[in-house]
């Protein structure tokens, strides 16, 4: 994709009134992902996929390019490239359920429909500083746990939502906001970190080690991270699936308030059922960003 076309994608993305930090990271080549446009000249629709598996369709005339968009999504799906898809809100009223063959999450039988496209709901939150400070003391660490800044050595900490899934290397991770760790010596229990950064906004990622879950340690790590963001005049950002009850409750306990509810489609990797959604180093190489237009098919 030419620089001019990438700039058009960035310009159109700037007009999308939802949290699009993951797509911005792909368009700006902060991370290595896939970027597609329906045509090389005067594109009407764009599609970006972050290495972690989240994707977005946006553009000035997605309705006119809908057939091409759906065909491209079908190619990816058939090739085993599962994703979590969001749609620019002004195009959400198009018949995505019908075109993707999607069912609502509440109507989905997980065992009977493992290959089914499922429509979840993604929630964008706004940060309420006063609500955060009102409960801040409730999130202080207790013995034996201590809170410290994440270091380069923490970049490779294993887990599902961890820095290595969002940044190419430790240096970039630390320069983009880093994170905060709840630990007892060498034992890391939880980490809150910058999963995306766009200008002065930093989206939080949270992970707790399996042995230490349901003890409030993720809240402690996140509160420390938010403290630091506020001191450095950065704005914390939070988004999650509505049915991710743990993440939703954690957000509200930290002063985040839900503002937008958006359709969020899970397109499973049906051709390779053992592959997890999103990028994993042991499954797919962390490759150079690929860009395509419909004419490349």
Automatic annotation (TrEMBL):
Residues 119-291 form the N-acetyltransferase domain. InterPro entries: Acyl_CoA_acyltransferase (IPR016181), GNAT_acetyltra_YdfB-like (IPR027365), GNAT_dom (IPR000182). Transmembrane segments: none annotated. GO terms for molecular function: acyltransferase activity, transferring groups other than amino-acyl groups. Pfam families: GNAT_acetyltran. This is N-acetyltransferase domain-containing protein. It comes from Cellulomonas persica.
